[in-house]
Amino acid sequence: MNILITILFVIFAAFILTSAIMTVTVRNIVHAALWLISSFFGVGALYLLMEAEFLGVAQVLIYVGAVSILILFAIMLTRDLEGSQHRQLTPRWWIALIVPAALFGLLIVPTVMTYAWQLPPPPPAGQPPAISGAQQIGTAFMREYLLPFEVAAILLLVAMIGAIVVAFEERERRRRVLTLAEQVRLRQQQRRSAAPSPEPAATAVQASEATGGET
Amino acid sequence: MPSITEAVPLPWVLTLAGALFCVGLFGALSRRNTVGILLGIELMLNAVNINLVAFWRYLEPNVVAGQTFALFVITVAAAEAAIGLAMIIAIYRARQTVNADEVDSLRG
Q1: Given CB atoms, is B73 within the 8 Å cutoff of chain A?
Q2: Is A193's Cβ below 8 Å from some Cβ in B?
Q3: Beta partners for B42?
Q4: SS3 for A35?
Q5: From residue B54, how far is each of A51, A81, A133, A180, B48 by CA, in Å?
Q6: Which end of chain B is more exposed for a tag (fewer CB within 10 A), N or C?
Q7: Is the CB of residue A50 less than 8 Å from the CB of residue B12?
Q8: What value of ipTM does the predicted structure carry?
Q9: Over the stretch A108-136, which tens digit does the pLDDT of each residue have?
Q10: pTM (global) more than 0.95
Q11: CB contact under 8 A, A74 and B42
């Protein structure tokens, strides 16, 4: 039975890490967000494996249900017109690779592996271990954690108002939402102005042909 | 009664959380897209949460403080994502870009 849990842990760990690495390396930002969602799911499964049921459900509801949808909306609203052909990583990304690799290899792994963790003794056989579940969390939120609970509520309210204020566009400055055809035309115009201008004579000929065709 | 405390040693879980944190840190440092930076930060917050839950489960399973702390981290992460994405949308509206290298002036 224990070997089953070990296998499950290894599978979840591989799933989480693969999804996370794909999140930070994949070129398309939409794909990165989708890989992030699968990583969230893996972390939620790990919570369930660690018998934190309430946290597992909260992880799926908040991260998978809310945060990732928010991220996908932000990506949709801020797609640059050229698409994802740009380089996604900074030019000196290998420096950014050295710092986390050194942090992991030189600090985290030696500390975690050599420290003598004082684990509590296992419960006597036949007796279920005392694990605090959702009921204890609810009681704690209404008693000793009441003040942090209220502060968290105010924080969420402030974040909501702040997000609206920051992202809100005043009515007179608001642009009309473009239709798809207008967007395509705008994109073509921008591409034409961005590209090196062809021979002026050729464009003049094309223009005269176009006007001639119309008349 | 099988449980994860007997099947998986605590350092394994902490190493997984550390690896996830470092992957997220790499993403936050190396991406040029500001949304990509935010994705890295979300990964780091998840790694911290795994750590908190692991300590709760292995060291103090009958005290609710570990799970409560993880829930507060989730709350703050949600607020941070909302504000961060609102700022990204505001920056995009002002400058038509989400590239962190091109947003280099304090003037709006």
Answers
A1: no
A2: no
A3: none
A4: helix
A5: 10, 44, 15, 49, 10
A6: C
A7: no
A8: 0.92
A9: 999 988 888 888 877 776 676 778 888 99
A10: no
A11: no
